[in-house]
Specification:
Blueprint lengths: L6 H21 L20 H24 L6 E6 L20 H12 L3 E9 L3 H11 L3 E7 L8 H14 L2 E8 L2 H4 L7 E3 L9
Parallel strand pairs: 1-2, 1-4, 2-3, 4-5
Length: 208
Amino acid sequence: MTSRRPRAHRIADIAVIAVTVSALAALAAPAEAATSGTTGAAAADVDHATWQRDCRAVMDQALPYLEQRIAAARPGERQAIVFDVDNTTLETDFGFSFPQPANKPVLDVAAYAQRHGVSLFFVTARPGIIAAPTEWNLAHDGYQVAGLSVRGLIDLFKDVAAYKTAQRVAIENRGYTIIANIGNSASDLSGGHAEKTFKLPDYDGQLS
């Protein structure tokens, strides 16, 4: 028979997880410089409202494409979208807490896709040690997680773009057609294995 931990200890555990997730996520940014992808404001002017406006502008382009592509699904086709996590699906730089808030423009697009039977996969440079809280955070915010790829010890020493491309190949090998790949860094989107890519702003690498 297992004993239940005191409430004070459980609260302390949650606080430790919050700090760990936020700190390790901040360290998970790709080592190489990302392309600017600046939409609207210059990097020096970035605030949450600007970022949300610029993310919405990109997702306003993605949604009509997805509506048409989902409607045109071939018989038996298993459609999927691949998302980055930090500053793509979650507000990492603007939500330094746990759970981190969803990036609302991206969540709106993801919600449409999952309502129409599209599987959502998440490929992140975050280390494996925070896989469980990351998946919980995504589900808590409303994402239906069909799969989450994090970096193991070997992957930590690999080129981030190559690692993420390999994860998309693995998803295709499971029988999925990746109809879109959404991220905020060049390393999220390079390497192919997606019918279309959508780049969110990173303001010359200012956002992880």
